[in-house]
Amino acid sequence: MSLQQEIIARFKVKPEIDVEQERELRVNYLKLYLQRAGATGYLIAISGGLDSAVAAGLCKQATDELSSETGQPYVTLALFQPYAEQSDIAHSYEVADAFQLSLRTETNIEEAVDEISLEVEHSFKAIQKSRHISHATKGNIKARTRMVMQYAIAQELNLLVVGTDHASEAITGFFTKWGDGAVDLEPLQSLNKRQVYQLGALIGVPTSVMEKTPTAGLWDGQTDENELGIKYSDINNYLEGKAIDPVAQEKLEKQYLRSEHKRSPIPGI
């Protein structure tokens, strides 16, 4: 078995999907998981990008159906987490409006992130390593700070935290371990980015969000493809079992092997 075949089997990506079937499968999974967990709903942080929009739409369908079927009040809480002024925050609210997410709140992470960053830089002085933290490190602080806030809210309201990772991110380890990679469940997990687009089109993600350039928003001007040096089209094709440019395949497989620690549980002896 080739490495490509091993990866496809691991992430359970299909070469093509029946989009309506995938929607129904994921909504039913969300309903069942919520009932088994004894929670009252889902918390989804809506970034303004496609992945969180699709996850939010699926969660809202699941909690609406569950409320109707059981007579119990299940909810989906939309959370917005800008760092200072978020230039595309309007897209986050547009998603919430599109899916009629009336239960919503906002936590601005700027002060918390900046305080943590300053303390880290201060600690360097004690070991004669005075320096400013990098964009990447501060980006990871943002991811972890967002998750601290998400879990604080979720715990108080008996909600489950929903992740937005999918196979095209998992293969590259493009998430912060125990930051945005630490959630209660991931309803998009076995889809690639192309398939997430297909699902988004089906459930009614706003066009403005569908057309955005993918970015994790770690710093101004950051985009997924520029940071990875790999196009999503190549990643999607690879996960669907298709042949891609050998240079792109080598880079992708190296990234997969190098980022294995992000996908693995905490190791022990």
TrEMBL record:
It comes from the Bacteria. Its EC number is 6.3.1.5. Mg(2+) binds at D51, E169. Pfam families: NAD_synthase. ATP binds at A45, I46, S47, G48, G49, L50, D51, S52, T164, K193, T215. Residues 26-264 form the NAD/GMP synthase domain. One of its GO terms (molecular function) is NAD+ synthase activity. It catalyses: deamido-NAD(+) + NH4(+) + ATP = AMP + diphosphate + NAD(+) + H(+). Keywords: ATP-binding, Ligase, Magnesium, Metal-binding, NAD, Nucleotide-binding. The keyword Signal does not apply. Pathway: Cofactor biosynthesis; NAD(+) biosynthesis; NAD(+) from deamido-NAD(+) (ammonia route): step 1/1. Deamido-NAD(+) binds at R144, K177, D184, H261, K262. Gene3D superfamilies: HUPs. PANTHER family: NH 3 /GLUTAMINE-DEPENDENT NAD + SYNTHETASE (PTHR23090), NH(3)-DEPENDENT NAD(+) SYNTHETASE (PTHR23090:SF7). Belongs to the NAD synthetase family. Homodimer. This is NH(3)-dependent NAD(+) synthetase.
